[in-house]
């Protein structure tokens, strides 16, 4: 019986795995040499939840109807929903396999809370509220895991701490447990298809990138955490080696990430910019740095507002669509084009051009479901993040106001394959939407 | 009544046998048929329940801490 085993490393970066640290990662290197590898082109935006969902379903974010972690519920100003597994209605690889009477184990593949009833086992991912939640299907798996491995670690408990040694310790603990659980499940349970995602590398990048990337603006040569990145990748490689040792020869293997990572130069305060350009008007005067939601907006004089994160979503205030819309539908395209052009020409704080890309959803997705942002903005080729808060008195910030900002996501992730398909050597670029079919070809 | 044979792990069989001791079930088969009928009758193996508000709030907080939201 043929099997497929998929190792998901959230955020694993091709330039580190394929080049910089390749010699130090013997197991990944061996898979690359014996099989093939490519640069996996992620979704727009390259963000964890839509990306993994696209990978396992073959549907893009527009078809899935979710565009990021948070999505508009309706056209009001404040109703947003955070994606969970119930919003993920498309057929995933395990649903296709169920039709062929094949068993799957899916562990930590977002969005997977609450866990779905599949033909096999599903354990939910990092968006599980807590270890007390019912995170496994069938439910008794939770009890089995707790008896053997203690409380399940879904994510690092406290990410925004200055105590980096402590954070690093948490990362090792989480991944160690995750790989041990996988090792146990792969031996003890029946499966034809096994896929799991470990979040450790993503958290490492966001928390430690500046310590190991000499090009990062905050890099200090010889800092005590300079080897933190390499050591962690080596640890993950060792753990992968342990899994490989437990797989039979007729098992094909994929190692994949949902997107890559790169150094973060800083943040662009998109709402500050919209205010300066006259698109957004506030009723309040922010005292210090506050979230836009905390400030009253003068909707009758506002054409656009935005939210931040690793990329920006810009929303237009359209007459007949939003409650206090001002842009007449006939002007919608004109204003959207004007905004796109202006946002693309925002420079860095020194006046240098940066490669900002602004996308209209209907141009990047095959279909549009639910409510997409009017514009999707990836600042400065993703070397810049988007900051939605206001009160900076500047369009640019290098401060860590909302979260760890050492690294941003990059458009390409890794894809390594060793198995029965004819995928050998340098595979060039692989689209994330095509991975589901590659997986399905094994059965 | 037409019947088919279904195989279950021996250990599970023994556990069920133990479980139904001194209950109304006369055999493991009886018990299994009863439980399965119950599930089939409810007809909603695939129905998912929503997530409670406090869980959604916990998820939102986590996302903010991680820097996904601002």
Description:
The complex is a heterodimer of chains A (443) and B (70). Chain A contains 13 helices and 20 strands. Chain A is of the alpha/beta class and 443 residues long. In chain A, β3 and β4 form a beta hairpin. The radius of gyration of chain A is 22 Å and the shape is globular. With 70 residues, chain B is mostly helical. Chain B has one domain. Helices cover 56% and strands 0% of the residues of chain B. Chain B has helices spanning 10-19, 28-42, 53-66. The mean pLDDT of chain B is 81. Chains A and B meet through loops of A and α3 of B.
Task: Give me some keywords for this one.
heterodimer; A: 443 residues; alpha/beta; 2 domains; nine-stranded mixed beta sheet; four-stranded antiparallel beta sheet; B: 70 residues; mainly alpha
Short account of what is shown:
The complex is a heterodimer of chains A (443) and B (70). Chain A is built from 13 helices and 20 strands. With 443 residues, chain A is α/β, with parallel strands linked by helices.
| Overall number of domains of chain B | 1
Strand content of chain B: under 5%
Number of helices of chain B: 3
Largest sheet of chain A: 9 strands, mixed
- Assign the CATH superfamily of the largest domain in chain A: Alkaline Phosphatase, subunit A
Separation of the first and last Cα atoms of chain A: 9 Å
Percentage of residues in helical conformation of chain A: 25-40%
Contiguous runs where pLDDT drops below 50 for at least 5 residues of chain B: none
What pair of chains forms the biggest interface?
A-B, 37 and 21 residues
CATH class of the largest domain in chain A: Alpha Beta
Residue-averaged pLDDT of chain A: 95
Largest sheet of chain B: none
Q: Could you name the CATH topology of the largest domain in chain A?
A: Alkaline Phosphatase, subunit A
Question: So, CATH architecture of the largest domain in chain A?
Answer: 3-Layer(aba) Sandwich
Which band does the percent of strand residues of chain A land in?
Answer: 15-25%
